[in-house]
């Protein structure tokens, strides 16, 4: 159950982006099509025309019914462009349908086809049929280079072990139709470019560069995260940014000390995920993160999606360029609700941090004014120490994705550097604290030289528990 989230920001009156319904009717799909074909909107079921919350009985079942009707009765597929959830207001339940504008217009009612009685637009607070000429024009300009329709450039077999582990960890279904349900095939039955981005191996890399000053004159660090599932790469970059976004102590009035981050954490996370999800990968250009001594910049390729104005963009109107990625990132709870990321960023910063051009969108986060730490100062890495408490065990479902990956990749005896290279990690401090020491504590791996934990020739191997876990993961 989702507690009241959006209604404080919505005008509880019908408009070009808000539709109020006292109860679920057979006109629902028509309303959804109209929003898909314009700039998106919100449908609130259980709210009357005057904006009064009346609630609906059996809201959870209505939620399931609505999702099934939208998936089944509207073409082209709009998975990733809508979400349905229940909200509670004054002990009454309403159903909230949030719809994004689609990039494959015209959307239409399946049973009527691409015709005036199947295609609709939102005009003010009403729904209007499309003229045949408009239907023809929209169809002629429909986005045809959607990643869903582009075959993967990888000619050898695609494997999706990482993606499946992510879904299993969330308790989501993984079966024989898993890849098909995620729209990872072209109309011809080949793995598409979205599948390529999500596969265990690909040639997509995200660069994180760090500079000594306020410009690019002195590069001090240049790391790449990628060549693996885009989900895994994104998580690794988020971990990297969490380390770089240092906490410092500032002194306010009356000599009060306050701990702060260089950058608002939620805004930084939203900006990175938006850059990954909405990037235009058709030109094989990936998002870039640049860290300077006074600001951090995230650049994505593609500019604004055709049909989305800057005002719509800043107002949080979502029009996903890659709806399949949006859906999967939402399944992984990396994205909360459509269009809410912009609100989180603008609640902490003003629009001036955005720089929008025809081909690029850059978000430049200035550091907090009283942050004085020199960003180039290398962190102190604590030595690896053996566990001082008896090791504990953990169930497979409780282990992180990276821990499972290390267990799968550990063959015989491997050094710390070998393990980091196999996992595609470069941050030694993060690896030691968040992966290596946890694996030792959980009795998954052991040191080959337990009496000399800091030996330069130290290596690690699987324990019997680790070997058993590996066998289970390989099944």
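-> sequence recovered:
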């Amino acid at each position: 159950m989702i507690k009241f989230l959006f209604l404080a920001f919505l005008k509880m009156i019908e408009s070009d982006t808000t539709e109020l319904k006292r109860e679920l009717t057979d006109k629902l799909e028509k309303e959804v099509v109209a929003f898909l074909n314009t700039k998106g909107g919100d449908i609130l079921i259980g709210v009357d025309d005057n904006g009064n919350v009346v609630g609906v009985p059996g809201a959870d079942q209505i939620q399931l019914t609505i999702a099934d009707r939208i998936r089944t009765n509207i073409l082209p597929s709009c998975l990733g462009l809508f979400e349905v959830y229940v909200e509670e207001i004054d002990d009454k339940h309403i159903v909230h349908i949030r719809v994004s504008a689609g990039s494959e217009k015209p959307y239409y009612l399946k049973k009527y086809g691409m015709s005036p009685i199947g295609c609709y637009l939102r005009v003010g607070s009403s729904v209007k049929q499309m003229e045949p000429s408009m239907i023809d024009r929209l169809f002629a300009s429909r986005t045809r280079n959607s990643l869903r329709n582009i075959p993967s450039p990888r000619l050898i077999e695609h494997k999706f072990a990482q993606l499946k582990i992510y879904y299993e960890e969330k308790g989501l279904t993984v079966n024989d139709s898993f890849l098909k349900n995620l729209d990872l095939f072209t109309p011809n039955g080949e793995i598409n470019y979205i599948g390529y981005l999500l596969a265990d191996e690909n040639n997509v890399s995200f660069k994180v560069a760090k500079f000594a000053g306020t410009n690019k004159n002195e590069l001090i660090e240049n790391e790449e995260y990628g060549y693996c599932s885009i989900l895994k790469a994104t998580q690794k970059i988020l971990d990297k940014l969490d380390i770089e976004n240092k906490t410092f102590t500032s002194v306010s009035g009356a000599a009060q000390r306050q701990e702060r981050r260089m950058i608002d954490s939620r805004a930084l996370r939203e900006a990175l995920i938006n850059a990954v999800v909405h990037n235009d990968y058709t030109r094989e250009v990936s998002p870039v993160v640049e860290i300077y001594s006074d600001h951090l910049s995230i650049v994505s390729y593609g500019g604004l999606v055709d049909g989305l104005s800057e005002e719509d963009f800043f107002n949080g109107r979502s029009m996903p360029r890659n709806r399949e990625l949006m859906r999967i990132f939402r399944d992984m709870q990396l994205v909360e609700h459509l269009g809410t990321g912009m609100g989180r960023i603008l609640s902490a910063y003003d629009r001036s941090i955005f720089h929008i051009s025809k081909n690029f969108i850059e978000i430049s986060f200035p550091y907090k004014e009283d942050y004085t730490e020199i960003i180039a100062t290398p962190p102190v890495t604590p030595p690896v120490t053996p566990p001082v408490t008896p090791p504990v065990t953990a169930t497979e479902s409780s282990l992180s994705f990276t821990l499972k990956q290390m267990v799968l990749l550990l063959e015989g005896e491997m050094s710390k550097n070998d393990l980091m290279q196999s996992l595609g990690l470069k941050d030694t401090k993060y690896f030691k604290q968040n992966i290596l020491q946890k694996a030792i504590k959980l009795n998954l791996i052991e040191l080959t030289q337990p009496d000399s934990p800091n030996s330069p020739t130290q290596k690690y191997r699987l324990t019997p528990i680790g070997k058993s876990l590996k066998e289970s993961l390989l099944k």
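The longest helix spans residues 59-73.
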